[in-house]
Amino acid sequence: MRPGAGSLLISSATLVDPNFARSVVLLLDADPVGGALGVILQRPSETSVGEVLPGWQDLVTEPPVLFVGGPVSLDSALGVGLLRDDHEPATGWRTLTETPAGAIGMVDLDSTPEDLAGRLAALRIYAGYAGWGAEQLEGEIDEGSWYVVPAAPADLFSSAPDRLWLDVLRRQPAPLSMLATMPTDANLN
């Protein structure tokens, strides 16, 4: 699978960069010429959404905190949501991919929360993002640093984000699923 908006990147067990070790990234945009942008899904912060974006606090999925989306622009915020399958997109929404549970997309946090109230099945807000230059992500995939898999809504709004890397790997077909058994320190293997 090639990277595209709405797909997941799973870091390989050998990727030791502390920014991305054992991470799962939702791609928000991917273009070999323009580069790629995504958010790391499983890093909740200590900061409540209400402290930073009080209008959105009642719409976010538990836990109601900002998630650290990556090492770039930590002072910016990106919203990722799941649109209820019985609702049409509204102002402030951009669809990334469709799933049987509804559309996964980006929420414009400069829009009015009321525009999306009742339309969202789930919402997470990320401080910062991960970014790759032109052809950089493709090169990292080719060298084996990342695996590209389809996203499931449960991944994006997991109640156990600390287990997400393992959970996403385990549901993949072999041999990719076998990587979930690799210890954090490969020297212990």
The biggest beta sheet is recorded as: 10 strands, mixed
| Rg for CA atoms | 16 Å
The ordered H/E elements are: EEEEHEEEEHEHEHH
Number of domains as seen in the coordinates: 1
Q: How would you characterize this protein structure?
A:
The chain is mainly beta. The protein has a single domain (7-178), classed as 3-Layer(aba) Sandwich (VC0467-like). The protein is built from five helices and ten strands. Strands 1, 2, 3, 4, 5, 6, 7, 8, 9 and 10 form a ten-stranded mixed beta sheet that branches. A hairpin with a 2-residue loop joins strand 7 and strand 8 (102-107). The relative contact order is 0.23. The mean pLDDT is 90.
Brief account:
The protein is mainly β and 189 residues long. The chain contains five helices and ten strands; from the N terminus they run ββββαββββαβαβαα.
Features:
189 residues, mainly beta, VC0467-like, 10 strands, 14% helix
List the helices and strands and how they pair.
Elements lengths: L6 E5 L12 E8 L3 E6 L3 E5 H4 L12 E4 L3 E13 L8 E7 L2 E6 L5 H4 L3 E13 L3 H7 L3 E5 L2 H4 L7 H7 L19
Parallel strand pairs: 5-9
Antiparallel strand pairs: 1-2, 1-10, 2-3, 3-9, 4-5, 6-8, 6-9, 7-8
